[in-house]
Every structure is written in C-alpha cells, then in structure tokens.
Design goal:
The chain has about 650 residues and is α+β, with helices and mostly antiparallel strands. The protein folds into six domains: about 45 residues, Helix hairpin bin (Helix Hairpins); about 230 residues, D-amino Acid Aminotransferase, Chain A, domain 1, CATH 3.30.470.30; about 100 residues, OB fold (Dihydrolipoamide Acetyltransferase, E2P), CATH 2.40.50.140; about 70 residues, DNA polymerase, domain 1 (Orthogonal Bundle), CATH 1.10.150.20; about 80 residues, DNA polymerase, domain 1 (Orthogonal Bundle), CATH 1.10.150; about 80 residues, BRCT domain (Rossmann fold). Strands 12, 13, 14, 15, 16, 17 and 18 form a seven-stranded antiparallel β-sheet that branches. Strand 23, helix 23 and strand 24 form a beta-alpha-beta unit. Helix 1 runs antiparallel to helix 2 and helix 16 runs antiparallel to helix 17.
C-alpha cells in the first residue's frame, strides 16, 4: 500500500473513532491505538507534504449536535500539540518559566460575563462553532453567576463530572445510564441537555484554564496573575504550579503520584508559558498555539497471559467482552481485568486463551490491552447468551461489530424489574445499585427475584468482581438479609405488576388486611370493589397472579422471605381522606418517598400533580415560583411547609 492510500485509510479510521467517541459515546479502539495511528498519519503527512481535507490533524474536535443553538467563536479554539517525553517538554520550555497544570478530560466551555453577570456559555464544538448552553451552565455546581469585575470577561475552562459523582449518578440514571461509559461522556451529555433541570442534577463542575479577555486589568505580563484574578472573581481554576526546565521533572512526578487518587478525570498535563507577550509573539500553526504544550502520560505497560474472556450481557442486550489475565502491577495497583469493548477489537487483537498480551492503564486509570504478542485468533465468539442461553447475533453499531442477545425475555434485558424490586419503596435493599445489579445479572448470577437471596452461594465470584471485595460482599449480604423481613405492601410494590406502585399496594394491603393469599386468589370483579382500583387495573392484577411464570417466581421468592402483618390502628389516622402533593427537598425525612409513606400510614393519599382534589401542597419553599406552586395558587390549594405539615399530625418526626 502506498503512502497516499495509507493516509486515506488512517484518516477514515481515525474519523470513525472520533465520531464514535465524541458523538455516539462508544469506543472502537483504545486510546493507545488511536495515538499510535494519529502519530503514523502525522509522519506520513510530513513525509509527503500532503494533508487531506478531512484529516483529523487539520480539524479540531467534531461537529456540534443540532438540537442546541449554534454560535461562532470570536477566534478559533485550537487544540494543543502533545508529547509523551519529559525531556522534550523541558527542551520546549527552554529558559522560560511556565505553569504546569492538569489537562482535564471533560467538555470545554467558553464563558462570557457582562456587567458582572454570566451572559453566555458556549461549548467548544468543532473549534470554530459551538453550542450555546447558557441556561445549563448556570446550574454548574461551582460557577459564579455574579462576579466583582463589571467589564467584559471571557474565559475558557473544562466542565467535568468527578469520578465519585459519576459512580453515584450512573447508578441512579435508569435506562439513560446505558449511554454513559465514563465521566467525560456523562458530562458531555449533561451539559448539552435541552432541559437545564437535568443538567442541574448531574453535579457538573467548571475549572477555568485560560483567560481570554478582561480589559483594563494589569496582569503584569503573567498567566499566573490571570489565574489569581480569576480566583478573586470566584472561579475555581485548574491546579497549577510554576516551573522551570530544571524543576519540571519533579513536578511532573508529583502530578503522576496525585493522579492515582485524583477524583477529576484527567488525560495528562498542560505546560503554558507564563510570559504572555512572549507566548503570543510565537503565534500558532493551523491547529496548535505555540505558547502551550500538552503532556500525555507515557503508559506503563506489562506483559501477561490471557486466562479467559468473560462475556457480560447488559440491559440493552449487548454482550461485552472482558479480558481476564494473570495479575500484574500497573501504576501502583494490581490489575487482573480489562474491557475489550466489542467484537471488532477482539478480532483486531486476534485474541486467544493463553496468548501473551501487553496491558496498560489508559491515562493511568483504565486498564486496556495495547498489544497481543501471540495473536492466535483462537477465541470463540459465544453463540449463546451467558445469562439466558438465547442465541446471539453480531451486528454493526457505529462502524464496529458488537455481540447481542436476541432473546427479548433475557433476564439481563429486564434489569428494570430488578431495579424496581430493590428500590427504597419496594424491598429497600441498600447497596444493590443498578450498576451492581447489571454486573450480577450480566454474569449470570441473578435470573429470578429469589436469586438475590441466594447470592451467598457465589461468595468467591462476587468478591472477585470489579468494584467488590470481601467487605463490599459482606455489606451487601447483610443488606439483603435485612430485607427478608418485609410486609405484603412492600412485596406488592416490588413485583412489577402493571399499575401497582406503593399507593395501590397500600390500598390492596389495607383492604385485605395484609392477607397476601386473599389478594392472589381474588378475581377481577372482587378487586374492582377495592376503593381506588378500577376495572382495568383489577384485570391487570388478576392477570399477573394467574400467569404461571409469575406464580412460580412468587412462590419461589416467598420461600426466602418472612412476611409480617401490620397491626392496623384505624383510630389514629390524623390524615384520613386528605390528599397531598410533595415537591422540593425535605428536611425531616430521608427523602420524599419516606414522607409519602409517612402520610399513607396515617390515612392520607399522595398524588403526583396538583389538581382540584388536592388538599395540601407540601413545599418548604412555600413562596417559590415553581409550576406546582402556581397551580396550587390558581386552584386555591393551600401550600404548607414541612413544619406546618408535622403540626397537623401532632407528632415530632425526629423523635417518632
């Protein structure tokens, strides 16, 4: 293949990889492979003197999404030239002084302030045109909405989601979590939401890394002074340290030690010349400014033996390969497993059990396979799903081959059932998050509800799973055992019967005095006589209990549980026949579900929206301009605080 043909092949491959990563939030190659191919293309362009019009070396970033307003940047936002050599970085700095800082891995945002107020926020986009996300930016956790400086201030920074927030949020996202495989992708999806309320719940943070404009301020020709000015305005800036060529190596090593426990995603460092005038005098190339250089970690690599490839079925039906190899030490930790992502990468690496492979941690964090030295290609792609045994199929997804389960009834594809089952308003199994459930189901350990209560049979396997250990396993089992003692009401809420949530479950449990057998045997005509249950819902309840598979699963589950009947005291129902709606945060309860249960136990009802039938709207911010408050005012519904509500019950919740 001649140089021009290879350049075309590399350009197409790298552009597909970028589109998959930045637009579809998937990966078709590792970071190491991408960098190697990018460097090969750069060398060929230098050798031939030709740069193709769509070459990734000539374009910055990727196209913007169409759903948000677009805006052209006042000046193109260039990316940085990079090196993995500490010596080359010191040579580049020469006799100048520089600022060494994190290169954060999130979404670059340009903020503009006018008269001391945030006026505009625009994403980097493709470097020339970005997306306007001003309303979303106002919800970032640490961004100042007003600042002391009243002139026009323009700055750039990185919007990020911390690893701890990523783990927490991803476990709460439901189906949407399937789209986010790392904090960068979650951050990108969060910042580019059409609904700023969604962004507000994602714990996005902003760290400034460049001041673009602040007229009338004397920065004494120093970038460090600009950082200090931004801090004075209330911004958090990227952690940075002043360096010379002599002190650079030890400072790089200090950052290398920090990244092992650094909570903010980072894919390297940035070295910026402190001298503003000198740096600007250097100008820029078509793609890179000459006043800064990116430093990418030189990945520590280890050779090891591939012991197995586990295939794990996700809730979307994708069956993902995970390499299991002889333990090696990487970046100070023991590593045994690495995601292989999809069938395309399995085939490109020509994997086979027993092969000698080279592994590394991408950005010193994520284990990856960089090379297969043996390349036996003997690994068999499974023809059956590891969870349900159903047939598998290979399909094309954004240019890469992925393995899928074709069985729509696969337990792994019914993750929602199990998420509901363990939720707070149902069986209330703490610690069994959606992400943990996906791992357990994907590894074939949970097929039916009762399997949750038999996980102790898989102690060693669970303790060896990613994110687990002996302590995590013990804590999980204690939480599961605690949930064995439950009530018919909670169980009914947990089963996933169409239309039966906590409120309907309470109606059934109250009407039948917690007699689950009577509920199971009731026909639709009898069920329809229960106050609050109409004929459609009654038919759905009857159909669920008459289904042989459901009946068998419930019978199996009941063998693991201890159901207790409540002693219903109809004399002490201070909220009887009252209907409430809850909005906003609560202070005296663990959450709104707790408050909802508290109301129901005292005879009240809880609705999801304000209507003419609502007696009270509970909102601790009774004067807010929320839609529910406005609706309550229009309908004459009384808005009360949590304190006022507790006075109605005559109880002190904190001492109850």
């Amino acid at each position: 293949m001649d140089d021009r043909s290879r350049m075309r092949e590399l350009t197409d491959l790298l552009n597909r990889a970028s589109e998959a990563y930045y637009v579809r939030n998937t990966e078709i190659m590792s970071n190491l492979e991408y960098d190697a191919l990018y460097d090969e293309l750069t060398a060929l362009e230098k050798k031939t003197g030709v740069t193709l019009s769509d070459s990734p070396t000539a374009h910055v970033g990727y196209v913007s999404a169409k759903e948000l307003p677009k805006e052209r940047h006042a000046s193109p936002m260039l990316s940085l030239d990079k090196t993995k050599s500490r010596e080359a970085l010191a040579e580049w700095l020469g006799d100048q002084e520089g600022l060494l800082s994190w290169k954060l891995d999130g979404l670059t945002i340009v903020l503009t302030y006018e008269n001391g107020t945030l006026a505009k926020a625009v994403t980097r986009g493709n470097g020339e045109v970005g997306e306007v996300v001003t309303d979303n930016a106002r919800t970032f956790r640490n961004i100042p909405l007003r600042i002391p400086y009243t002139g026009t201030l323009v700055l750039r920074g990185e919007a990020v989601i911390r690893y701890t927030d990523f783990e927490r949020i991803n476990s709460e996202l439901g189906e949407e979590a399937a789209r986010y495989k790392n904090p960068r992708n979650l951050c990108s999806g969060s910042v580019r939401q059409l609904n700023s309320e969604v962004t507000a719940g994602r714990s996005v943070r902003f760290y400034a890394f460049a001041l673009v404009q602040a007229d009338g301020v004397d920065f004494r020709n120093s970038r460090q002074a600009q950082f200090a000015f931004l801090q004075e305005q209330g911004f958090e800036v990227v952690e940075n340290v002043r360096v010379t060529a002599q002190t650079l190596p030890e400072e790089i090593e200090a950052f290398a030690q920090k990244i092992r426990t650094f909570d903010i995603p980072s894919d390297g460092l940035v070295l910026l010349l402190d001298d503003i005038a000198y740096g600007e005098s250097l100008g820029s190339t078509a793609k890179f400014p000459r006043n800064a250089m990116a430093f990418k970690w030189a990945d520590e690599q280890q050779e090891t033996e591939l012991l197995d490839v586990e295939w794990s079925t996700s809730r979307t039906g994708l069956i993902n390969p995970v390499a299991v190899f002889s333990p090696v030490e990487l970046e100070g930790t023991t590593v045994r497993r690495a995601s292989v992502h999809n069938v395309s990468i399995v085939r490109s690496l020509q994997l086979g059990i027993g092969d000698r492979i080279v592994v590394y941690k991408a950005n010193m964090i994520i284990p990856q396979i960089s090379e297969n030295l043996t390349r036996s290609g003997s690994l068999v792609i499974p023809s059956r799903c590891p969870v349900c045994g159903g047939e598998t199929r290979i399909r094309n997804d954004a240019g890469s081959e992925v393995l899928t389960c074709t069985n729509p009834a696969c337990a792994a594809r019914k993750l929602k059932r199990f998420v509901l089952f363990v939720s707070r308003s149902a069986m209330n199994i703490e610690g069994l998050s959606e992400m943990t459930l996906e791992k357990l189901i994907g590894n074939g350990l949970i097929h039916r509800f009762a399997d949750i209560y038999r996980l102790q049979e898989h102690r060693d396997r669970i303790a060896a799973m990613d994110g687990f250990g002996e302590r995590s396993y013990e804590k999980l089992i204690r939480s599961i055992d605690k949930s064995r003692d439950t009530t018919p009401q909670r169980l009914l809420s947990a089963l996933g019967i169409s239309g039966v949530g906590p409120a309907v479950a309470k109606l059934l449990a109250d009407h039948y005095a917690d007699d689950l057998t009577a509920i199971r045997e009731a026909d639709r005509e009898t069920l329809a006589q229960v106050e609050g249950i109409g004929p459609v819902l009654a038919e759905a309840i009857e159909a669920w209990f008459r289904d042989p598979d459901n009946a068998g699963e419930l019978e199996d589950l009941l063998g693991e549980l201890h159901l207790s009947k409540r002693e219903l005291n109809t004399d002490n129902l201070p909220l009887k026949d009252l209907t409430f709606v809850i909005t906003g945060k609560v202070a005296h309860f663990a959450g709104r579900e707790d408050l909802k249960e508290y109301i129901q136990q005292r005879g009240g009802r809880v609705a999801s929206s304000v209507s003419a039938k609502t007696d009270y709207l509970i909102n601790n911010d009774a004067a807010s301009a929320s839609s529910k408050n406005k609706k309550a005012q229009q309908l004459g519904v009384k808005v009360i605080t949590e304190e006022q509500f507790l006075q109605m019950t005559g109880e002190d919740k904190d001492n109850a």
